[in-house]
Amino acid sequence: MASLGWAVVLSVLSAASYAAAAVAQERLAEHGQRGLSRWAAALLLTGGGVALHVIALDFGTVAVVQALGTLTLLFALPIARIRYGARISAAAWADAMLTVAGLAVIMSLSVESGKPSVLSTAEGRDLSLITVGIVVLLALVSWRCGPRMRGVLLAAAAGTAFGISSVLSKAVIGSITGDGFRSVSPFLLGMVVVFAIGGYLLGQFSYRGAGLAAPLATVSVSNPIVAAIAGVIVFDESFRAGTAGTVVVAVAALVMTAGVIGLARRTAAPPTTETPTSPTSELSKPATH
After folding, report:
1. Fewer CB within 10 Å: C terminus or N terminus of the chain?
2. Alpha-carbon span 235 to 135, nearest angstrom
3. Which residues pair with 204 in a beta bridge?
4. Mean pLDDT over residues 112-137, rounded?
């Protein structure tokens, strides 16, 4: 229980850091990507979010930590209120409650595996190859689609890359805590970086011509789902109450998904008067977790 508590605290702090980084990135964009202090703030906050997320993975299951990552969208509500003076509607609060309710059920039923969360180089290679195949397939198919569907498919590819990056990060942390830094597979460490950077770039491309809501909701949902499935398969993570517990978690995931989609639709900042068709908010950037 203590481990779960630390996982929750660190994940919430990570989500807050990502949300603050989004504000810093938005201000940087408003000033034409200029300003050393703005760059430093955006990078430090993003790096802080990544570090907290990775540490949280050592205390909780992938399913719990990844699901808590969606709280970045929840933090977007007060950010929008403070930054833009936007009123938080009853619908937005309802979406927030759905998200939190789904998270609470998933956290209460999630069970850490009894064996160490480590992967051999061969297992990591197989998982990485499967992930690369899925990501490449989604990216290739996306270029034959219209702007909206292209954005959704690229966001799904980004969410897949981010989810597996977190799974591999947990394996790397497991190796370090078990046998020290020398036990870490350079291949796994390299793939963590590749999937994190690749997911970020795919996420950026997904917003071109597709608006904010659809890509943001897709990456926010696909990320924890892919990570949770992978965690169950490769780390033997499970849920209490056997099959019944798994069914309850699946329903909770659907509830959380509905909340996340609603929150994603409400995180866009109001457009500027100079560029009425261009979103000014960088809250659409997905968290690298």
Report:
1. N
2. 22
3. none
4. 90
